[in-house]
Amino acid sequence: MDIFEKIAKNMGPLGQHQKWSHGYFSFPKLEGEIAPHMNFRGKEHLVWSLNNYLGLANHPEVREADAQAAKDYGMAYPMGARMMSGNSNHHEALEKSLAEFTGYEDAFLLNYGYQGILSAIDALVDRNDVIVYDAESHACIIDGVRLHMGKRFVYLHNDMDSLKKQLERATKLTQENGGGILVITEGVFGMSGAQGKLKEIIDFKKDFSFRLLIDDAHGFGTMGKTGAGTHEAQDCLAGVDVYFGTFAKSMAGIGAFIASTEEITNYLRYNMRSQTFAKSLPMPMVLGLKKRLELLRSKPELKDKLWEIATALQTGLRNKGFNIGTTNSVVTPVFLKGELSEATAITMDLRENFGIFCSIVIYPVIPKGLIMLRLIPTAMHTLKDVERTVSAFSQVREKLEKGYYKDKKPEMA
């Protein structure tokens, strides 16, 4: 069969809906300044879908730093991969600051988050090693695990009994082939908002030999006394062997970093294929990130405001009887009982009649029969935004329970 003919018959689980969903449910265009209120299809909406946790995207000092760096360096400098010709004092200074902030000996700056952790996993293990990972790990971790040429075992999400069983399997195997074990989890799971059980995982080191890598994309900047991450919040820095953080969330930028001991970080510098064979971060982004990190560290009131909004949102939803799952972070999921057709109708009702834009999650990401509306609070939201949202959700739930959304077909202009 011709490859293109095969593709035409199977556009994929998401692509199969593209003819009617594109531009509305998928690939929507939010316009205007990055803020809690933006324009969607010509109308102002209250937006809960942007990971601009600390509101740094349009902070005046950040905008000034970005603009000045672009003026001074352009977007091309430095040219080439870091190892060959793309290094600079500014890249190294940012790495030093990130290591210091997160509590590690060294850090390595990455051009992209998704490719970064995927490549780090590939570099850390060989065919004799075993990976043990949480079932709800982000797609970037899953893809990194798929690259692994050795064995991999998955444990039930945040289930320590399941983890123990997989560690027992992995230990038996590595005792036979001389390999090691890498456990991977997330600091904060981006869908459920639940923190990974880092301290409980680390406790297993008393009985098993393994190293722990955490993806703290949603924890960096939001968790812990200083915002250093979930390992700080759970007071278990010593047990997290490799720490990964991204700039696409709290730092409102692009790129990522990975931190560990000086030896392991240097090993990653020279063995991560996604960095060895790809261009380094442009100077405007590096200098802009330095300013973002400076503000993250010097203005704790930004994180405090974020948590004020998140706490008010989650408390308001719980008080109204909503199921927000197991979240113990600022990520706020709202679970409703319903089918795909009802999910699309609810989304449209929220956008068209309530002016609220939030992400919707359905099967297979969550079990059949459930709809998840995912809210991302930021330091820029207000308590008035929270009240408006809780009220709208209450009205939507009432309509859902009365069958209002049954068999409604999406009709986008």
TrEMBL record:
Cofactor list: pyridoxal 5'-phosphate
Top-rank taxon: Bacteria
InterPro entries for this protein: Aminotrans_II_pyridoxalP_BS, Aminotransferase_I/II_large, AON_synthase_class-II, PyrdxlP-dep_Trfase, PyrdxlP-dep_Trfase_major, PyrdxlP-dep_Trfase_small
Database matches in SUPFAM superfamilies: PLP-dependent transferases
Start and end residues of each Aminotransferase class I/classII large domain: 46-392
Any one GO molecular-function label of the UniProt entry: transaminase activity
Pfam families recorded: Aminotran_1_2
Pathway assigned to this chain's UniProt record: Lipid metabolism
PROSITE patterns in alphabetical order: AA_TRANSFER_CLASS_2
Key words of the record: Aminotransferase, Pyridoxal phosphate, Transferase
Recorded family membership: Belongs to the class-II pyridoxal-phosphate-dependent aminotransferase family.
Protein name as annotated: Aminotransferase class I/II-fold pyridoxal phosphate-dependent enzyme
Organism: Pedobacter segetis
